[in-house]
Write a structure and sequence with these properties.
By secondary structure, this protein is an alpha+beta fold. Helices cover 34% and strands 32% of the residues. The protein has a five-stranded mixed β-barrel with strand order 2-3-4-8-5. Strands 10, 11, 12, 13 and 14 form a five-stranded antiparallel β-sheet that branches.
Length: 303
């Protein structure tokens, strides 16, 4: 057996045991393959219909049937020790990606990407296309297909589906018949849940940062309008936001903010002037307009 390699390892795994291939897949994986294979067969029947309305309904029905079966097969989206083959490995400036093909009759791929780190890049570079692995992780939820399916058309989704997944653990194996010992299952489940919890926390942090930046942009626009009202002309603001090095945005209280920074404008004599501003504002209740929610309290200009 080849050496064990782990992606995002959080525990040490023991040796694998042998079991027959395909028909002896983990139960959840076998049920997923059955659902995907059936959906493909139902799509082919529907595609032969001449009545376009009947065809559309039949295709939608097959997609919904697959959704129900997948949600039943993969409770909560987590999967443990699925057998798969390396389909594609790629790396960009910011992310590394790995596609794994499930051993279904229909071509079905799990697609994983993660921010680029040297450790992950080194591991992925060691994988050969076509090599067998055991993978544990989770599928990302989606209202349309149960789990996020990335195809742009019904044809692609039902003929060769591609599911967005997050891989917590990957182990290189010699073939499709290798499995983890049953006693390791609880540890694998815990590892996947730990990985998912950390990923969700990172997503929350990223969402909070994005919301903060959006608020910063609104504050800057309100400040710019207040300054323009004072100089009675358009002003030129540098790039403004919480991460800007030119501006200072301060939260004074739960609903009060201050924006300070430089600007340029053209005065009544046509001369280009440089100045700085200091605007304080108060956030009011939602009124359907994100900018009018902010009431300017004071505007100070310094020539």
């Amino acid at each position: 057996m080849r050496a064990i390699q782990l992606l995002f390892p959080v525990l040490l795994l023991g040796a694998c045991t042998k079991s027959p291939p395909y028909t002896r897949l983990p139960q959840s994986e076998a049920r997923v393959c059955e659902a995907i294979d059936l959906a493909r067969a139902e799509y082919e029947k529907a595609d032969d219909l001449e009545n376009e309305m009947a065809k559309g309904r039949a295709i939608e029905s097959s997609r919904q049937t697959r959704k129900t079966a997948l949600l039943s097969a993969v409770a909560g989206g987590a999967f443990i020790g699925w057998s798969a083959q390396v389909e594609r490995v790629s790396a960009g400036a910011a992310d590394v990606s790995l596609d794994l093909r499930l051993p279904c009759q229909v071509k079905a791929v799990l697609k994983h990407s993660t921010p680029h780190t040297q450790r992950d890049a080194d591991f992925l570079a060691s994988l050969k296309v076509g090599a067998w692995v055991l993978v544990s992780g989770y599928l990302e939820a989606n209202s349309t297909d149960g789990f996020m399916e990335l195809s742009l058309t019904d044809r692609g989704s039902l003929r060769e589906p591609e599911y967005k997944a997050k891989f917590a653990l990957i182990k290189s194996v010699d073939g499709p018949d290798e499995r983890y010992p049953e006693e390791l299952h609880p540890k694998l489940v815990a590892a996947v849940e730990e990985y998912r919890a950390k990923a969700l926390e990172r997503q929350k942090q990223a969402s909070a940062e994005a919301a903060k930046e959006a608020t910063g942009l609104k504050l800057c626009l309100v400040a710019q309008r207040a300054v323009e009202a004072r100089v009675k002309n358009e002003v030129d603001f540098p790039l403004c936001g919480w991460s800007s090095t030119s501006f200072k945005l301060t939260r004074l209280a739960d609903n009060r903010y201050r924006v300070e920074g430089p600007f340029t404008y053209v005065n009544a004599f046509g001369a280009k002037m440089k100045a700085s501003f200091h605007v304080e504002m108060e956030e009011g209740p939602e009124d359907g307009n994100e900018l009018t929610r902010y009431k300017v309290l004071t505007t100070k200009l310094i020539e």
